[in-house]
Amino acid sequence: MSKSLQAIRGMNDILPEQTPLWRYFEGTVARLLDNYGYKQIRMPIVEFTELFKRSIGEVTDIVEKEMYTFEDRNGDSLTLRPEGTAACVRAVLEHGLTGGGQPQKLWYIGPMFRHERPQKGRYRQFHQIGLEVFNLDGPDIDAELIVLTWRLWGQLGIRDAVKLELNSLGTSESRGRYRVALVEYLSAHLDKLDEDSQRRLKTNPLRVLDTKNADTQAVLVNAPKMADYLDDESRTHFEGLKARLDAAGIPYVINPKLVRGLDYYSKTVFEWVTDKLGAQGTVCAGGRYDGLVEQMGGKPTTGVGFAMGIERLILLLETLGQVPEEISRQVDVYLCAFGDAAELAALALSEKVRDQLPNLRLQINAGAGSFKSQFKKADKSGALYALILGEDELAQQVIGFKPLRGQGEQQNIAFDALAAHLATCVVQG
User: Fold this and answer.
1) Which of 17, 157, 255, 345 would give a disulfide with 322, using CB separation of 3.0 to 4.6 Å?
2) pTM (2 decimals)?
3) Nearest residue to 362 via CA among 343, 341, 376, 381
4) Exposed/middle/buried for residue 276 (C-beta within 10 Å: 0-12, 13-18, 19+)
């Protein structure tokens, strides 16, 4: 017996009952970014593998373990994008969007792919909204990215469930000096490090700071602190960021172990975390990457950005009960028609109503059926009201109007008064 077809593990269908919440979230973010002056860019989901090796770093977990990489028919090595920043930088360079020092404030949305062990809040195909800003080097733009996310959390009703963590990684030179001191310290405690941290000590020692192993965390208590190795420029930048967040009234904590998982970060790094989702606590994260554009073949260009995980934020909205009641209803009015003549009249009438009320969600019954079966479908649709058109109503040029979700008797409304009545009951009610 053949195996039934099903989705790849960790790559999930988003079903019709789920998509209204996704559309609500995505629409809320898009409107906010429009208000802050960000422009949308759309990149391919497949890029040359070399792009991610050069940007993310060959000794990162993403490149070493998690990328979906394959050869196409031409023998080129291609990769499903594991994150969006590298692809956005490639697009900016390819199309000369930052030529002449022109600032760019961009955002994108779409699926990313990493071969990880699937679990709640962590999938092999996951979706992100990302922001990238180029050619603005001050702490003011770093602060704007954080301020607008704070505003988003307020609009979504989740501010009390998230916490902002900040750190500064300094320049590549100051980070290099810190790396030497950290390696020297950890090497003296090698026998107390977990196996993964021992491996990272040789390839990417700053990632040891991010370990979840309790024994290694105990060793790190007395490890050198990155703040002691910051250059003056980075320290001034970080103080400027904190001053702006203080002025905006945004609470934060300094996390000296926050390093992020990608090699290209410098100076500011930040994460919005929650304790409401178990192990998958990061819902939005990013930072500054002033050397990345040059590293990828462009002229020196500053950059800063972040990405937020849509699945995790959707899960947080559901966990906190912050799903607006109205988005679960996809139909406002359901029109039931009985008989051939009534069906024709219902079609014409419904289109006239749509002309007058373009935002009204009006569903007309399809497939005919008895009075009982059509009313059952009207109720199942979640509509607030049912419209009833049969031979008697058609002869009188009226339509029955019946509340489905509350008190109220059925009444007859003249055809030419229907749109105005619905505007009062639905669009404005």
Assistant:
1) 157
2) 0.88
3) 381
4) middle
